[in-house]
Amino acid sequence: MKFLNMAATTALILAAQVSQADTQQAELRQELDSLFLQDKIYRIQESDLNIREDLGESWIDNDKQHELSVIQDALDQLGKLMLGTYVIDDSSVFTTSLDEEITSGRQEYRILRDAHPKGHQCVNASFNVNNNAIFPNGSFLGSSANHNAVIRYSSASNTPQVDSIRDVRGGAIKVSVGDQNHDFVMLTSETFPTDNAEQFTNLVKVARVSNCINIIPDNEDSNDGFLGSIFGPIYDFNQRVLAVAQCIGNSELSILDLPGIVGAGIRFVDLQNSSEIESVFDKSFFGVAPYAYNDQVFKFEMSKADCENSNPESLGLNSSEETANRGLESNIQRVLSAGNACYDLNVISRPSDLTNKQAIETHTKTWDDMSYQNLPRTKVASVVVSQLEESTNIDPVSCDEMQFNPGNTLDNIKPLGSLNRARALVYESLSDFRKETNAYLRQQ
Ligand code: HEM
């Protein structure tokens, strides 16, 4: 009896401590939200958004005011989700290469990126522009010149996870030209799960805000059991529709959004599952969304190329890199310890047979697929990733603090399409939010 009393008292004390910790966390989240997030949401105005109708851009539902509210909503949702990434106790964030900084006590808390939180490494590179037939001499992408650059390699999953899990990887390049920069922000997938920012925000709401993450099964090993094996894709599809319908009840969405959300969820999983576990030096990276230089509309992508001074060992993942938590980082360090690695930056011009909607506002299909041909690529630059040198290496915290933005361009190169319009504003606000919040937390 005495033992039972003691056990009950201990349980009560523990519960009180846990709930006190929870309350403190909730209060801190609230404080950070009102200090650093809310003003950024309402600072975005209609005047921050403009489109080139002459090049085929159009507002979501042809309504600029609606698009503005979609972007504000995205910022609010994603910002609040970032507040959930505190580094506390056994947070999965400890799986990232930032763990030494964190456990050393220098940074008790750290807010990570909402997307691509796991950085594999930032590396120095040289961005060597070639004269080419697309951009005129005198322009940034048309004038032969060598510029310094930094590349941040990352994994897309919003929760950092081991590198042996299939995931879309990111490659963000910052090219320095004098005291200005141009950012290329790319993925290893050629397409995106949604065509516009509203569909993307709906997916985030259902999957993450309403805590319905299970509508997106983790990976292809997810087990649908006996019924799943008999009815295969039909069973799978129906299960997802049912699950999403339940989740919609918990969010502010309309049932009319259901087909769009299910489609986006399926594409999201397909993109993850089709991502091979490979070295970043064996991957191609895609800009996905279009850009314009004057009246010229194009997309960019980066593909593996031979180098003069590359490491004579294989650049691919070796067997231990393939299975390690930070296998991609180990691979980058091994390859760059004894040589460099190279890519070509290529440009695809808008094909003439696509409608404006297809060419500018569609991101779930490639231009090649929509125009039923392999469109020609024009090389505009070589990207030479430098051999690692102790004196110039970029440490993980500095890498994490870097800000990349698809709207950060030179020569008035203009990002086009709904996703790019949202990204330019969302990345700017949220990376400022991340930096300000981390600086504040470090002073606590
Ligand atoms: C064309 C489609 C997209 C591509 C190619 C893309 C790619 C990337 C990449 C590579 C990063 C990591 C950048 C880095 O290393 O700092 C990133 C970060 C991020 N992405 Fe995207 N993304 C896309 C669409 C979106 C959309 C539609 C949203 C939401 C509206 C979004 C929200 C974010 C956020 C919030 C970050 C973190 C920004 C920061 O804190 O610095 N992305 N994205």
Give structural notes.
- Strands 1, 2, 3, 4, 5, 6, 7, 8, 9 and 10 form a 10-stranded antiparallel β-sheet that branches.
- The longest helix is centred in the first third of the chain and has 42 residues, at 2-43.
- It is globular and about 65 Å long.
- Helices cover 40% and strands 17% of the residues.
- It is an alpha+beta fold.
- Strand 6 and strand 7 (296-305) form a beta hairpin.
- The chain folds into 2 domains: 33-189 and 276-443, Catalase HpII,  Chain A, domain 1 (Beta Barrel); 197-273, no CATH class.
- It binds protoporphyrin IX containing FE (HEM).
- Protoporphyrin IX containing FE (HEM) binds at residues 74, 78, 113-116, 152, 154, 170, 172, 185-187, 192, 197, 200, 288-289, 363, 403-404, 419, 422-423, 426-427, 430-431, 434.
**Main sheet properties:** 10 strands, antiparallel
- Distance N terminus to C terminus? 45 Å
Q: Characterize the overall form.
A: globular
CATH class of the largest domain: Mainly Beta
What series of H and E elements makes up the topology?
HHHEEEEHHHEEEHHEHHEHEH
Question: What's the gyration radius in Å?
Answer: 23 Å
Structural class: alpha+beta
Share of helix, binned: 40-55%
CATH topology of the largest domain: Catalase HpII,  Chain A, domain 1
Q: Quick check: average pLDDT?
A: 85
The CATH architecture category of the largest domain equals Beta Barrel
Please indicate the percent range of residues in DSSP E strands (runs of 2 or more). 15-25%
SS elements, strand count: 10
Task: List bound small molecules.
Answer: protoporphyrin IX containing FE
Total separate domains: 2
